[in-house]
Amino acid sequence: MIVSGSASQVLAAELAAALGEPLADVEYDRFPDGELLAAAPGVADADPDRVAVVASTVSSDAHLELLQLQDAAREWGADEVVTVLPYMGYARQDEAFEAGHPVSARAVARAVSAGTDRVLTVNPHEDAVCDFFDVPAEPVDAAGRLADPLPADLADPVFLSPDEGALDIAESVRDAYGGGAVDYFEKTRHSGTAVELTPSDADVSGRDVVVTDDIIATGSTMSGAVEILAERGAARVFVTCVHPMLAADAFTKLSRAGVEAIYGTDTVERPVSEVSVAPVLAEKL
Ligand code: R5P
């Protein structure tokens, strides 16, 4: 039985189809005082052996829905409750940035652990975030699938990551594409929206470039990269990421920077979510 959070309905349906499992009829309501109620009354008598709650925690509401659906799944008598976090919110807050700060990723991991037997999460910012869960938790790598929507005719392509930490994702996309150079920028973050990028030494003049990262949040990182590549004479610049959060004006920033196309997965459901991670999750379920 696949049970979806409201922000993950497309992926949950794909996953149910891939596994041949039923998709629960979930109702998402809100009380007059603002409190949420996510429930699936029709499942109560279904007596499922296993329930997989699929919910990207893209907002505080999505976190709450997930906790409610996990709790309901226990009530239905499932032998196993699996929590699938296609996108794990707060994963980037994986340390206390100043004295007195919380480790927010640990806080949410503990809360999620209380209602599940195991956790799968797709390309968390650092795999080590899985250690914060009190139940077995496994990162699932979907980066290779980002090569699928790229044109087959890339000219002498260069696959770049905006920092060294995302180099493995760029390598996965290059390997899945079947060839090309790989390199990375040096990145210094000055604030939530201000980043400074130092170009790699790769010669991009006249070549197609694919910039790949785990997430596009404000788009500051990626739009900065696209601008630099345009100045250095790159031909087409494609942007790919696992989690296309695209907060606020991120899409506009990238368009104004001159990006050729943006491709993301359905861990965060957006118009650019061309790639489904359902097949890689199905393998782990
Ligand atoms: C940071 O290390 C991540 O890999 C991303 O590069 C970053 O979170 C992207 O954020 P933004 O889109 O706000 O620049």
Topology, please?
Blueprint: E1 2-4, H1 9-19, E2 27-30, E3 36-39, E4 50-54, H2 60-75, E5 80-85, H3 104-113, E6 118-122, E7 137-140, E8 158-161, H4 167-177, E9 181-184, E10 186-189, E11 195-198, E12 209-216, H5 220-231, E13 237-244, H6 250-257, E14 261-265, E15 273-275, H7 278-284
Parallel strand pairs: 1-4, 4-5, 5-6, 6-7, 8-9, 8-12, 12-13, 13-14, 14-15
Antiparallel strand pairs: 2-3, 10-11
H/E order of the elements?
EHEEEHEHEEEHEEEEHEHEEH
Tell me the quaternary state: single chain
Strand order of the largest sheet: 9-8-12-13-14-15
Hetero groups in this structure are: ribose-5-phosphate
Percent helix: 25-40%
- Determine the CATH topology of the largest domain: Rossmann fold
Secondary structural class:
alpha/beta
The N- to C-terminal Cα distance equals 11 Å
Biggest beta sheet summary: 6 strands, parallel
What features would you describe in this structure?
- With 285 residues, this protein is α/β, with parallel strands linked by helices.
- The protein has 2 domains: 2-141 and 278-284, Rossmann fold; 144-266, Rossmann fold, CATH 3.40.50.2020.
- The chain is built from 7 helices and 15 strands.
- It has helices at residues 9-19, 60-75, 104-113, 167-177, 220-231, 250-257, 278-284, and strands at 2-4, 27-30, 36-39, 50-54, 80-85, 118-122, 137-140, 158-161, 181-184, 186-189, 195-198, 209-216, 237-244, 261-265, 273-275.
- The strands form 4 sheets. The protein has a 6-stranded parallel β-sheet, with helices on both faces. Strands 1-4-5-6-7 form a 5-stranded parallel β-sheet, sandwiched between helices.
- Helix 1 packs across helix 7 (278-284) and helix 5 packs parallel to helix 6.
- The mean pLDDT is 95.
- The site of ribose-5-phosphate (R5P) has 15 residues, from strand 12 and helix 5.
- The site of ribose-5-phosphate has 15 residues, from strand 12 and helix 5.
